[in-house]
Amino acid sequence: MTDERPVLVAGGAGYIGSHVTLELLAGGRKVVVLDDLSTGRRDLVPAGAVFIQGDVGDGGLVRRVLAEQGCAAVMMFAGSIIVSESFQAPLPYWRNNMGAGLAFLDACVGAGVRHFVYSSTAAVYGAPDSLPIAEDAALRPISPYGRSKLALEWALADACEVAAMRFAALRYFNVAGADAQGRSGQVSPVASHLIKIAVEAALGRRAGLVLHGEDYPTPDGTCIRDYIHVADLAEAHVLALGQLERGGESLIANCGYGRGFSVRQVLDAVQRVAGRRLAIHIGPRRRGDPPALVADPGLLKRVLGWVPKRDDLDLIIRSALEWEAKSG
Hints:
Elements: E1 7-10, H1 15-26, E2 31-35, E3 50-53, H2 59-69, E4 73-76, H3 83-88, H4 90-110, E5 115-121, H5 144-162, E6 166-172, E7 174-176, H6 194-202, E8 209-212, E9 224-225, E10 227-229, H7 230-245, E11 251-255, E12 261-262, H8 263-274, E13 280-283, E14 292-293, H9 298-304, H10 313-327
Parallel strand pairs: 1-2, 1-4, 2-3, 4-5, 5-6, 6-11, 7-10, 8-13, 9-14
Antiparallel strand pairs: 9-12
Helix pairs in contact: 1-7, 2-4, 4-5, 6-8, 6-10, 8-10
């Protein structure tokens, strides 16, 4: 039976949060979106959701929203997400990801929230010893971003030891693509994700792009990443919430497809799908970029019954191109 109480989606006006909101609404859930619109967009919030503009780090506001809306479950997407930027401004990353996140968590515990789904990251693993990466791999984040996200994971787990709350922390690998109906896609003031940058170049919105490093210990010298379609990721969130609501134990799960593509392979695919050549310039490595990150998604499939439907790099790129062409 579907829970009649609304789900609070913090950061629901952003890229992943808006897709999860769409998936929740499609499943008949009521949704309340809390977002300060610092990076999200109001037009990405579906008409079926209640929207409240505000700071997720404002504990008083969060408690009022939870009480007034009657939310017993939350999903947390708000935060800062750019690895390279986190080296330049580490304290704002700690402030946004850990400071505001801790205030939000404290408000949720105080309000009696029972289920908490957290947007975590593969950056908690740093440069792994072997691939694919399972959830019990060593946690050695190499960026302020990864460290700040892992710190809130730990705080969440500690809080659930003493509170009547269970959690799911989903560790994303590289999220890309857009909603098939064109209702949401990747938006950001400054693009930082490879596929978004490449499709912008393919559409003539930028003169070219920089390939950061071609001397990594990989087959073609460029970084390898596991790309997951945002809609498959959204389904994983809804499954995780359902598992908790049915009495399941807290869990931490990797979100990826279990296979990786190099930067050069992705750029070749963008050129193939878009039907045009890109001006690609070789630049130095970026700090905080491990050579390869590929998920072991076995736990997600076994425990939640997750079956990805969009495990196709060309499909991911095509959906990103269509969104970019429509929204630009």
